[in-house]
Amino acid sequence: MHAPSLPGQTIEAYESVTDDDRIRRLHSLADTLEDASILHVNSTATGGGVAELLRSIVPVCRDLGIDDNWLVMDATDDFYEVTKAMHNGLQGEGAPLTEEMQATYREVNERNAADIDATYDIVVLHDPQPMGMLDSVQEAMPDAPIIWRCHIDLTDPVEEYLSFVADYAERTDHAIFSRGVYGEAIDVPTKRIIHPSIDPVTAKNRSLDEETAAAECDHLDPLSFDAPIVTQVSRFDPWKDQFGTLDAYRRARKTISDLQLVLVGGMAGDDPEGLELYERVAAEAADDPDVHVLTDLPDLTVNLLQRRSDVVVQKSLREGFGLVVSEALWKRTPVVGSNVGGIPLQIEDGYNGYLVEPDDTKRAADRLVTLFEDDERRATFGSNGREHVREHFLLPRQLEDLLTVFVDVLDLDP
């Protein structure tokens, strides 16, 4: 286990994007938790949505005076192969869960649990990867509530994977899900729904001055910002359906002849499928100079692309939440997204974007054409999207929800 390096961040940085009452409530909750120590555990420090959230949440909590801590598992490639299979199985597809896979999972978790050399008042285990350390943590910290934070869509799981994870989850004290329907299949003592959020002050989401924007445009040559652009930003993962996005682009290009497609994806440290899928997508697009398949871009470059694209697509087949949707909407870029997971919570169809069924590339293409042919509609959708995200999907709101859970599970008086 290791503690990742963290940026400095202050709660004051959010005063321009949230209301004063929420800032006051956050200070009050932090005062209530001033004597509590909290530990978050997950499986990677980079490349995934969980890591991105913790990289913002933990520094802000510390600035508020909360003893908030984050440890990342040290694991082998074999372990990540197992946990990727678990992730896929919990979302509906997967090879059989073998005894060897279960043994690898338990061995790595037990070794990591032994590395925790302090005690905490609350332990938060994020997603299935660290759940195998549950028994060791409970033995070492018998009075500490254990919270399982599930970021995955559990609406159609493979039963053997669900059963394996549920055996751990049902022995935690509390669970947090991103949508209510995700928690229906697991019987935990108490549950709470907390929608994830984006951090509006990070390099990926903050406003860009003209000089910075121009420099980032130069980094993306030969992409032309004088021709229409549609972009998808997501990990190279089968559930993100980059091939479906390619098909929708090709259909739309029959009408929008100079349309360009940018497929951007990072490589999560705990996802062994990423490089293989990136190579397959790049090979599929190799014959089209107007398709740009890019990986591991700096956050500022991703920010620029989401701002300068005319439309963003999120063509997921399954999606725990899909915060890249809110990232684009925050930048006033309308989104065409699949009607799965947390995407319909972010896209109001016909108001800030369009929803399509996940396998309907023809409908996705039609919606792209509708937006590209109507500048006023794109601008209106973009403004609507910005306000929708401001109200529902910025970090201070998520942080208030999370701190409220911590106060409740410790049975403190706010």
Reading off the top of the CATH hierarchy, the class of the largest domain is best stated as Alpha Beta
Q: Approximately how much helix is present in the residues?
A: 40-55%
The side-by-side strand order for the widest beta sheet comes to 2-1-3-4-5-6
Return the CATH architecture of the largest domain. Answer: 3-Layer(aba) Sandwich
CATH superfamily of the largest domain: Glycogen Phosphorylase B
Strand-pairing-aware structural class: alpha/beta
SSE ordering: HEHEHHEHEHEEHEHEHEHEHEHEHHH
The count of helical stretches stands at: 15
- Kindly provide the radius of gyration, computed on alpha-carbon positions and rounded to a whole number of angstroms: 21 Å
Mean pLDDT, to the nearest integer, reads 94
For the largest beta-sheet, the strand count, sense and barrel status come to:
6 strands, parallel
What kind of assembly state do the chains in view correspond to?
Answer: single chain
Number of domains: 2
- Give the DSSP E fraction (strand runs of 2 or more residues): 5-15%
So what's the overall shape? globular
Q: State the end-to-end CA separation.
A: 33 Å
Low-confidence stretches: none
CATH topology of the largest domain: the name is Rossmann fold
